[in-house]
Amino acid sequence: MFAINVWLTVTEPRNIETVRGLMAQAVALSRREPGCLRYEVYHSQADATRFLLCEHWESEAAWVAHRSEKAFTEVYQPHVLPLVTREPHISTMVE
């Protein structure tokens, strides 16, 4: 399994609801992709500008393939990334 967690911080508060809506689209699309085991987005209650993406893929190759799919190329990259700063953390699950 390949896991990555990403903190997104919306740079302009007026864009919070836009990012929330776009991430809802990305969730729906990503969950249908081959190799997606889990794709969740959490909106912080402590800081409304912060979103946490939790992604689990069957393999790193599945995650790489995700980057050429609609969720990434038509939603996340062109519309979300310009509105946020991004802190990715490739992770290992503690069991």
Description:
With 95 residues, this protein is of the alpha+beta class. Strands 2-3-1-4 form a 4-stranded antiparallel sheet. The protein has a single domain (2-91), classed as Alpha-Beta Plaits (2-Layer Sandwich), CATH 3.30.70. The longest helix is centred in the first third of the chain and has 15 residues, at 16-30. It starts with a strand and ends with a strand. Helix 1 runs antiparallel to helix 3 (70-80). The protein is globular, with a radius of gyration of 13 Å. A hairpin with a 6-residue loop joins strand 2 and strand 3. It contains 3 helices and 4 strands; from the N terminus they run βαββααβ.
In summary, what is this structure?
With 95 residues, the chain is of the alpha+beta class.
Keywords:
alpha+beta, four-stranded antiparallel beta sheet
Shape: globular
The CATH architecture name reads 2-Layer Sandwich
CATH class: Alpha Beta
- End-to-end Cα distance, whole Å, is 13 Å
Low-confidence region ranges: none
Report the major sheet: 4 strands, antiparallel
Instruction: Please name the CATH topology.
Output: Alpha-Beta Plaits
* Sheet/helix structural class: alpha+beta
The pLDDT mean sits at: 97
**Strand order within the widest beta sheet:** 2-3-1-4
The radius of gyration is: 13 Å
Q: How many domain modules?
A: 1
Number of helices: 3
* Fraction in helix: 25-40%
Strand content: 25-35%
The helix/strand series, from N terminus to C terminus, equals EHEEHHE
The counted number of beta strands is: 4
